Amino acid sequence: MLIDHLRAATDRGVDAPDPLRRQLLAAGSATLFGSVFWPAARAAVSTSSDDVIEWSATDAVRRMTQGDCTAEYYATQLLAQCERYRSFNAFITLDPARVLEQARQADRWRHRGGRLGPLHGLPIPVKDSINTAEYPTSAGTPGLTGFRPQVDADIVARLRSAGAVVLGKTNLHELSYGWTSRNETFGAVQNPYDPSRIPGGSSGGTAAAVAARMAPLGVAEDTEGSIRVPAALCGLVGLRPSTGRYSTAGAIPCSPRFDQVGPHARSVDDLVLFDGVATGDYRPLNGSPLQGVRLALGRRYFWKSLDPEVERLCQAAVQLLVGAGVVIVEAEVEGIEQLAPGTTDTIVAYEMRRSLDAYLTRWHAPVNALEVIARASPELRPLLQRDLFPQSPGYPSRALYQDALQRRLPALRRAFSVYFAATGAVAHVFPTTLVPAPRIGEETTVRIGDRALSFDEAIGRNITPGSTAGLPGLVLPIGLTAGGLPVALEFDAPAGHDRALLSLGLALEQVLGQGQRPPTL
Question: How far apart are CA 61 and CA 118, in angstroms?
Answer without folding.
Answer: 7
